[in-house]
Queue: 2 jobs
Job 1
Amino acid sequence: MIPALQTRALTIGYRRHGKAQALLDQLDLAVAPGELVSLLGRNGAGKSTLLRTLARSQPPLFGSVLIRGQDAARLSAYDLARAVGVLLTERLAFAAMPALRLVELGRYPHTGWSGSLSQGDRTIVAEAIAAVGAQHLAQRDMAELSDGERQRIMIARALAQRPAVLLLDEPTAYLDVSARVEMFAMLRHLAREQNVAIILSSHDLDLSLRLSDTVWLIDKANRLIHGAPEDLLSGTALSAAFSSNAIDFSLTERSFRILSRLRGEVFVSATGAERDLLRTVLEREGYGLTDEPNRASFSVLATAEGWTLRTTQGTSGGSSYADLAHTVRSLDENPVP
Amino acid sequence: MSLEHHEFGLRPEVILGLCAALLVLTLLAAIALGSTAIPFSSVFDAVLGQLPPGHPDHDIILGIRLPRALTACLAGAALGVAGLQMQTLLRNPLADPFVLGVTSGASLGVALVVLASGSAIGTFLASGMGWSDGFIVVGAATLGGLLVLVPTLAIAARLKSAATVLIFGLMVGYAISAFVTVLIAGAAPYQLERWTAWGFGSFSAVTWTQLQVLVPVIALGLGIGLLSIKQLNALLLGENYARSMGLNTALMRLVTMGSASLLAGAVTAFCGPIGFLGIAIPHTARALFRTSDHRLLVPATIVLGAEIALLAQLISLLPGQFGVLPLNAITALIGAPIVLLVILRSRRGVFSG
């Protein structure tokens, strides 16, 4: 199968005063039709530069990009637009324009000089709107839509170009939490249903790692590590790329943990969700969990009514997690009676 | 579904038709009304060629009123389309040839040609200009307009702030106007007076000979506008998106700048620097049709431009036998409130784009 997008010895970066400054070099990547790729990395790592180079809005320093097996540099502007759709990070001030009209603009590379749409074009536009689940927005004015709705319409516009590859630069930026999840779920579905390769950059580690087929991770040494999310999770790549003195990437939580100097350790007698909740309360107060009762400063026991805290001095109990946090916080000054 | 329905339930094609009908009526009024009262029957006879040359009504109608009305239509359509092109290209609702100094650049071109050719400014302004001279002056005015527009667009590409671009254009315009004033300062008093009159703007000084230059030049500029409707629509999303959809943005910028300068330059060369129409006309079209789709906006701007310029021309004749009002004062009185409305009505601010 011909990959939707492929890079050959691609080196990306900028030329300043005739000097090449490479951000990433020797990239040999391939994305199959229907594959969802998340591009992860810190700000300034070169995510946007890579996407711009793949979209041909910036020339590579070296190497080439192949779209459906064809060298992107040799495609005409229209052919490129029929192969690659993009979503940019720039926020647009939309003039009075119904969402449908905006999606119709995506037919630009397929229409003649007058830009008038055939019945076939209209069908494709309607399909693109349906594919992003925005039928109910079609007649609304762009100026009235929420950020998430606009992003959907802009993606439908890119889809109406009928591209092999969608390049989305931070499609979930500006979106609120639920809109982020919806956007990711929609893209996950879209890639498979439309058999289009999607490459997106994101700062949403959790969603990217859960829903992508492949992760491209730019680490601190400016290397691009790629693989299935689970492959990256099981290695040290993710924590190496994102961890610092203050935070640590947690494999089980697929998220960050704040590192702080531990005041001590606690033996917790609880299971499942209750244990998790007790752990986060105690972590916040500066205590880690231990399985060794001997090393513990105190112990916490989950009970039917709530919790019981036992120190060498005595026992106290309560029903809410707020009470527990309060009791732990006051342990230093007033040991439990 | 091609074009959106209007809120009053009227199809946009119908509104455009009504505007065109109104334009024809206004055109008739512009021919029938003037400082000399001429009965309607004579007006029709003159237009239909029933009156002999030399008959005073014939000379007034065919020699003065008809070319004046046609010039107003052409100038309004030209300035409206030039304004629309610049607003879309710069993604700036307040851009127009006058504000961004294109008109000043065109004045500079006119002044330089007039001074270089050695002919007295007065002769030129008193419509002693021949056919080939006309093309030279239009060419110089267009180049003068480009001289301002090119750096302004370069600034616009580098600085994303629409306000900065506007102020840049305004300042360049002022600087060039000042330079033109210095150039002209040495002229004889009666020439200066004529230059000042030209600066007020007028559709009256254009003869049939000059119309032979004005018509093809403006037809070319409007033709480019009509043929680039698809490209203008792509630019609604900004140059980066337009490029991603297959538009050759560099070529489009060149063509649009060229045709906007040509339109504004030709009008300025023959009618003087006319302000506000370039902003007011496209916004009137947007407000009337409630759309930013250039498939409607370009034809609507042409029709409304002709209509508004004719109205301004008619209003300038209001004093009757006591002379005419300066055209620029009328266009400012029409245009300034529209510009203010644009600023006040945009909820997120004009410069959010």
Job 2
Amino acid sequence: MADLQERKIKDAQMRATINQKLVETGERERLKELLRTRLIECGWRDQLKAQCKEIVQSKGLEHITVDDLVAEITPKGRALVPDNVKKELLQRIRTFLAQQSSM
Amino acid sequence: MSLHGCEHLTSLKAAYGIQPFYIIHSYFIACSSIEARRVKAKSCFCHTCRYRGLRVHACLSCVYFGCYNEQHIHNHAKTKKHNLSVDLSYGTVYCYACGTFVYDEELENVARKQQRAAAATLGIKRDFAPWEPGQDEIELLRRNPKRRKVSENSHIGLRGLINLGNTCFMNCILQSLTHTPILRDYFLSDQHHCHMTANPQQCLVCEMGRLFQEFYSGVRTPYIPYKLLHLVWTNARHLAGYEQQDAHEFLIAALDVLHRHCQGQGTNGLSYSSSHHCNCIIDQIFTGGLQSDVTCKQCNNVSTTIDPIWDISLDLGPGPGSTTAAIAAGSNLVLSAVGDPALPMAVGPALVDLPTASLSPASGFTNSPSNYEPTSLLDCLKRFTRPEHLGNSAKIKCSNCSSYQESTKQLTMKKSPIVACFHLKRFEHSTGYHKKISTYVSFPEELDMTPFMSSSRNNSNGYTNQIVRESATGLSCDNKYSLFAVVNHSGTIESGHYTCYIRSHKEQWFKCEDHVITRATAGEVLSSEGYLLFYHKQLLEYA
């Protein structure tokens, strides 16, 4: 039990350190740009835009907030991200970490 | 919602100007300096629960960061009456009094400027932006209210072509070109501006544009491409007349004429070879760079040349100068086949064409699998890009050691074209005889050209860590292609017929035989003989 707790704390620290490195070096922005491009290329953006339009139209512009839309569209958006896009991003992060650790 | 914010933002701006937003945005959202990035990396977390991640907001009135998801920023806004905050992930401004995001033109301009500067410091090219209609386009859309929606099973873009007397060679090339996605986008978005101002009726590019209009108009009766045929006849005289022509020859001639007309050059203009540094749509789509490395055996000096190419012609049948090796390999197979009764079926095809092997002297190459007859497109490409010993009789003067030496030559792809056209050389014209090679050559629906790129020859790709490099090359999509058209020839070298398969959407294949179009399966396409294979890049770079 204590081990699990310890590991959770360690994981969180690790995540924070990695995130900090990604931001500091600007790599996070590069990854974001890559992701943006890939999502547009594979039609994800258009798909999501169409779904958002549908939701807004069905509820009426006056009765919907950004928060409603975010709550409804987020799970769909996550599910629609193609596997190869996720793989490519993961690969890029691995590459970045390998380079960082060899420095 | 307007572009002028809300009354709360207006009063905040009246009191403090845009300074608070400016500072927060430049340090925590779009950083242009190493120092700012360091600050951002350290301090972007919720001051209440220390959460780092998406949707942490910064108060625009005091130094407080709080997360949106857990409502810590909401609580702050309520207790302190600080109504406005900025989302640290996206730079959008939220008003808690109005309960919604507010959009202010002035702040958005600041944000855009800083984002551009930040991207520039990291070397990110932000060329890609989703299309937004401009004033002209809005007007155009308003005046033309009819919309055509392309669904998965719509037949738009499919149209038969009447055979004008042995013109199936032209019809199948036209079908392939009209279903080239990037060429279609170019013509349907009306990007061609005619350069043949003196005689626009003579412009083949304009005629192609009209062909695209005809194909995508929704009309389903067969189209008669007589004007196009006439234009090709007048511009490429060797194709004129009512005889059957070679589809590959027609393709190259058509690309050449299109390329020349793009630059406003008439029939007597410069030819392809002398004016390849061109940015016309044909060159943008079809031109690849073929690198040839000649290595001197004496001093290992490599001299490199790069030539532009529109297609890759691949030899079938046993490789040149490898007769002995091929026969040796063949007889090995025969021996093993005799020894093992289960094998003869498998080796059958490899032996059929052995007598056609040219009887030139054998080179020093043995063991190379490429001395066999290629049975797949990948085999052909491997053979195309393998180092070739130029032999004793073809000594080349080395520029480094200034002597005539034996050398090896290797071809690789320096630049992969957007559309890769492979020509399987099925028609053999040797002295004394003409013959069609009907060997089955398998080809894949998805093709990765990475192993045949010049960068694979040098074998580093910039990664120092080998494991990372290997997995990265396996994942890279830069050189991945999808099959979208196949031209087939049936019959003999003297008389035959051309048909083609085209892909209209993903996994939607159709067979085009002049005016008849029928649905086909991917399996049929992949098991067809294949004469010209058209592959389209899966991902395009925005250079």
